[in-house]
Design goal:
two-stranded antiparallel ribbon, flat, about 5% strand, mainly alpha, about 150 residues
């Protein structure tokens, strides 16, 4: 009776949704290298500014003397640096027009001709070196926060 009618309506509703849905699209296009890169850069900038704002709020507020917030400030500072490093590294990556790896097989080598190439690789290295300590400081602050909340609970 009515149970069959509800099931039929749901089935027809799903069929209509599937038939009227847009076709799948690719997440990126290989023809234009920087497509989405500007959005990616803006995301790095927004993340960095959020970390700077969080540091500012902690420093100016009553939170600076509480346990765990010093580690949180250090974690935020490293993540802000990480994002600014990424912005510079991506911009340098786009500016490199010549091949930076030449040769093939065991005869491959890096071409380090100018300051942009050196700066590009330095940002690549620091990009990976900044994350572990940043996450450690966040972990350390969360550990301090959890200890503080355990001691205050009844």
């Amino acid at each position: 009776g009515s149970e069959m009618c509800i099931r039929d309506r749901v089935l027809w509703g799903l069929i209509i949704v599937v038939l009227c849905s847009p076709r799948p699209g690719l997440a990126f296009d290989l023809l234009w290298e920087t497509q989405g890169s500007y959005v990616h850069q803006m995301a790095h900038l927004a993340f960095a500014l959020a970390m700077v704002f969080l540091i500012y709020e902690i420093k100016r507020g009553e939170l600076r003397g509480m346990p765990g917030f010093r580690s949180l400030v250090w974690g935020c500072a490293l993540l802000a640096w990480w994002n600014f490093d990424a912005i510079i590294g991506h911009a340098l990556d786009w500016s490199l027009t010549f091949p930076i790896i030449i040769g093939s097989g065991v005869h491959r080598r890096l071409l380090m001709e100018n300051w942009q190439t050196w700066a590009f690789y330095i940002t690549k290295i620091t990009h990976f070196l900044l994350l572990p300590p940043a996450f450690y400081f966040f972990y350390r602050s969360l550990k301090r926060f959890s200890r503080g909340s355990e001691s205050k609970s009844p």
